[in-house]
Amino acid sequence: MIISSSTMLLRLSILISFFGLIPLSVQGFQLEIVNGSGKFGLIDRSSGETILNKNYEEIGWNEGILINEQLRAKKNQRWALFNSKGKAVTAHEFLTLRPHNSDQFIASKMLSNSILQQFGTIDRKGKVIIPFEYLSITSAGDRLLATFKLDNELVQTLLDAKGKALIKGFH
Predict the structure, then answer these.
(1) Please, what is the end-to-end C-alpha distance for the chain in angstroms?
(2) Helix (H) or strand (E) run with residue 78 in it
């Protein structure tokens, strides 16, 4: 895979910004992750506004601080979704939270009285799109590959973004 120099500079800027060395300009914001006593916060250097107070274990995505005007922050080992202004869209309830497409996020929650996770999807407003009833969900282009248990066997199904099965249960 060939990576352009501008892509490399953006990735380097994200890494440097994560460690608080320089700010990162993103879509009209000049965002900087700041560290205070081992907790992270987020400020907009262009306005001086605090987006998130220094209360979080982690902030941002693997791909950068903001994705589709959304960010995530981890507190007490649980992720929450926030809008670009720092307003919480969800509670800190997700073990995992990652983007699927421009309007949807794959998330997992801990099952009640269990060590297992359940996966589902939420939209940008935190509304559940695909219920949290799968053992795993992964992106497969614009589709989702979901795994569930049927008669003590792991079965996969291909879902559209709304959760409709396109190819039902295969091994």
Answers:
(1) 31
(2) strand 78-83
The amino acid at residue 84 is: S
Q: Which of 162, 171, 83 is nearest to 130 (CA)?
A: 162
> Could you list the pLDDT tens digit for every one of the 171 residues in the chain?
444 333 333 443 444 344 443 344 444 558 899 998 889 999 998 889 999 999 999 999 988 888 888 999 999 999 999 999 999 999 999 999 999 998 999 999 998 788 889 999 999 999 999 999 999 999 999 999 999 988 889 999 999 999 999 988 765
Distance, CA of 62 to CA of 79 (rounded, Å): 14
Selection from 101, 98, 64 nearest residue 81 by Cα? 98
Tell me whether residue 123 is exposed, middle or buried, using C-beta atoms within 10 angstroms of its C-beta: 0 to 12, 13 to 18, 19 or more: middle
Q: Give the H or E element holding residue 38.
A: none
Single-letter residue type at 41: G
- β-bridge pairing 117-123 and 104-110: antiparallel
